[in-house]
């Protein structure tokens, strides 16, 4: 082996023998005493989340969709056109009646 390879091997051995911090250096996991508390907190949050989701889904069942709004606007538009046409025809008829009565 060359001197370079021996130096690299020695560095690798020193690296492997060096003390290591715990796998979890970020403050979560690995703490078995608090694990039960953490799991209980997650389960409670899960129950709360499910309840909130159920309430949201219940509300969504009563909310109009875009298609519902489009259909309602379409129907309302045609009602407006029908009424306007009817009133216009009635006014024209009344005007013609008045004109005929005057002659």
Number of helices: 3
Oligomeric category? single chain
Mean pLDDT: 84
Report the C-alpha radius of gyration, rounded: 40 Å
CA-CA gap between termini: 129 Å
Shape: elongated
Largest sheet: none
The unreliable regions are none
Fraction in beta strands: under 5%
Number of strands: 0
Order of helices and strands: HHH
Question: Keywords, please?
Answer:
single chain; mainly alpha; 103 residues; 3 helices
How would you describe the overall organization of this protein?
By secondary structure, this protein is an all-alpha fold. Among the domains are: 33-63; 66-103. The protein has three helices and no strands. The longest helix has 37 residues, at 66-102. It is elongated, with a radius of gyration of 40 Å. The termini are far apart.
Question: What's this model, at a glance?
Answer:
This protein has 103 residues and is mainly alpha-helical. Among the domains are: 33-63; 66-103.
Topology summary:
Layout: H1 3-17, H2 32-60, H3 66-102
């Amino acid at each position: 082996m060359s001197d370079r390879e021996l130096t690299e091997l020695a560095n690798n051995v020193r690296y492997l023998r060096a003390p290591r911090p715990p796998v979890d250096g970020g403050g979560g996991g690995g703490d078995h005493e608090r694990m039960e508390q953490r799991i209980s907190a997650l389960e409670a949050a899960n129950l709360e989340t499910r309840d909130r989701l159920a309430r949201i889904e219940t509300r969504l069942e009563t909310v109009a969709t875009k298609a519902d709004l489009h259909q309602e606007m379409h129907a309302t538009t045609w009602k407006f056109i029908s009424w306007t046409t009817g009133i216009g025809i009635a006014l024209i008829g009344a005007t013609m009646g008045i004109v005929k009565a005057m002659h």
